[in-house]
Amino acid sequence: MSQFIESIKVEDREIFLLELHQKRVDQTFAHFGKEGSIDLSKIYKNLENDGDGLFKLRIVYDLERKVRTQLIPYALPEIHSFQLVENNSYDYSFKFEDRKELERMKMKAKAEEIIIVKNNHITDTSYSNLLFKKGKDWFTPATYLLNGVQRQNLLKQKKVKETEITLQNIKDFSHFQLINALNDFNENFIYPIGRILNLPGNEDYPEL
Length: 208
What we know:
The protein contains four helices and twelve strands. By secondary structure, it is an alpha+beta fold. The longest helix is centred in the N-terminal third of the chain and has 14 residues.
């Protein structure tokens, strides 16, 4: 049976974006024709967490409502190189625990992290959505693989806008940043677009 995962930010015993995480879990059960869901708030309250600091609450569940949890100390990663990789068939509409295809693409790449290109459009990295900066404004690709909770949150707050980002216009943007449930919008933690090793015009990008 397929297993799904939610990675939730917990900082100083406060849990973040719980409503959006719960909505995604509920939609997963509904999509696969299952009644009911799991209660993320109840799961968190039953955990022993008396530590301050930043943690990732990792909840793995299946459609029979079997759940396992981990609370893991978390630090924001700094990545030194990115590579565009083409995969026109990959689908990650739901947050499956099985990440074999993502790991396969990463292993074949020559950079620390990959940016997946699907049908000529920029999508996501192996573990995050993306934001791109043009002038003073930040944009997120309309062609995401997974509509992440942080992405939804930032669009709702109107901190970012959605736009089409392709291999043809990616160089119009000066910087980019990675966002997910544990990586919030942060103008102090961004990368110049040149951190992508194989921008169009530099070299071909591989199909993985």
